[in-house]
Amino acid sequence: MSEVKYIYRFLNYLTVDYKALKMYLEEMALKGYELESIGTLGRGKFKKIEPRKIAYCVDLVDNQTSEAYEGLCEDSGWQSIKTGNYIRIYKAKEGIEPTPIHTDREIEKKQVIKTLLKTEGWMFLFGIIWLGFGIQEITTLNYYDLFDNFYLQNAWMKLALGGIYSIYSIYLIIFVIKSLRQEGYSPSLKGAKWRSRLYYGGALGLTCIWMWALFLEDMTLKAFIPVGMMSVVIVVMTIFYRKYVHEKLQNNKKKTQLSILYAIGMFVVMMGTFMISIALVLSTPYEPPTLEEGLLQAEEAGALSLKDFPGFEEAQLERVWMESGESFALEKYYENDENYEQMNFDANYYKCKKEKYTEIIWEKLFDRYSDDHIAYGALEPIDASLFEVDLAYKHQNYNELLLRKDNTIFYIDCEQVDFYDEANVEIIKNVFK
Amino acid sequence: MAREQLKTLTEPMYYVLLALTEERHGYGIMQCITEMTEGRVAVGAGTLYTLLGRFEKEDIIKQVREEDRKKIYVLTPKGKLLLNEEYRRLCQLVADGKMHCEGEME
Fold this sequence. Notes:
The complex is a heterodimer. Chain A has 12 helices and 13 strands. Chain A has helices spanning 18-31, 67-75, 105-119, 121-136, 143-148, 155-181, 189-216, 224-251, 255-283, 291-300, 355-369, 422-431, and strands at 6-10, 33-38, 43-48, 56-60, 78-83, 87-92, 316-323, 327-334, 345-352, 379-381, 391-395, 400-405, 408-413. In chain A, the strands form 3 sheets. In chain A, strands 7-8-9-13-12-11-10 form a 7-stranded antiparallel β-sheet, sandwiched between helices. In chain A, strand 7 (316-323) and strand 8 (327-334) form a beta hairpin. In chain A, helix 4 (121-136) runs antiparallel to helix 6 (155-181) and helix 8 runs antiparallel to helix 9 (255-283). The longest helix of chain A has 29 residues, at 255-283. Chain A is elongated and about 105 Å long. Chain A starts with 5 loop residues before the first strand and ends with a helix. A 3-stranded antiparallel β-sheet of chain B has the order 1-3-2. Chain B is globular. Chain A binds chain B through residues 59, 64, 67-69, 71-73, 75-76, 78, 99-104, 107-108, 111, and chain B through 10, 12, 26-27, 30, 34, 42-51, 69-71.
């Protein structure tokens, strides 16, 4: 008794290449492999047979999900192998040479275009939107961003992604128009394989970029919660679907009702998870690093000279954070201690990699500390050379200093300290070294 | 717009309507057409299904009952009228052709 041999091949051809898939399956039959089923991720299971000619039909369906259609195909000699949402694969029953499922080119064309818009159509939309965003920011393009600061919201990145997707989808559109126009068009298998590789490679790349953006960019830790929850739900739902629903859907008579029910259920679960995760994110307070971590970061950023400042040891380190890996801020705040009457110590240190950020922070601080509306008073320029900085301001009414040198900003507010004292001037100078 | 499209019928459309002068289910229509044309015209399952959907929407055919999960259709009065019109048009085409072509052949 000889055992039945199986081989597996991935059959992830694009919708535009449905004819190539048909060709591939027929070639496999001539080589002695008959398609038996298609599993998860488009993995086709081929049975080893005596090489023979088998006719296949790859049908693109838009909304023909009714049993009547299935029955009609079955009656006319086509045995269904895969019933997907947009793509169906049929095999001619043994000993029958059935009429092709599509005998009218015009109807087939319409069907192909409709299905295409629903499957690969997103790419065109995505490309155009992203390209639009990129073009909007085209004036801010600079070489520095290209080499040193390459992240998702970068105009270069938007242009690159938008460009790649637009070009690829335009290529696909031209390809489809050409192949639909040409009577008896026979696609090249190699080309179809490459189109599919590009498509799935691109989709994978895009997912990686999104993940990278979510986890490593501005959102940092916060993104872990919703993305993690969504991922878990998607995995669980997929397993559940494959194990319990998929089979039933294929055999059940009330196919449509069950699938609607499933779709509603899926939607409810997804939305629920989404809402919960958003609520979780909103209610999770930002947790600053511990004092030790903050000090370590401060040391790495070269801001530790602050430690020498009077009152530092006693003060509470309120916040230390790294912003997008770009800026460094150290804020400490201290008040109402018995030993220090109304001791108030507030110091901010910002070290930015780019002038752009320095400008933003400088403007914000300047506005914050010179608010005339509440009779708070304004900042006045003082001699910058005293502290060896580029810009130096002191508050009219309070003992506050705002200094800037290159891309470093230092703000200090301490009523009890005389900033002009020689020793303190040295400490402040050290802050900028 | 759809009404416009059906002003003249394509060959498969014409034969589908011809087949539906009697009650028939999908596969019955396919078989009937093959018999009628001795295999010259074949209508595939996908094409037929789309055509039936379109005809039903335009009230040219109607579903009379369902047997064994198979929908059985027949022409509506409107469909009969359309088929008659088409028949007359085709007769006119043949008559016109006769006058010219036969003269030329002689």
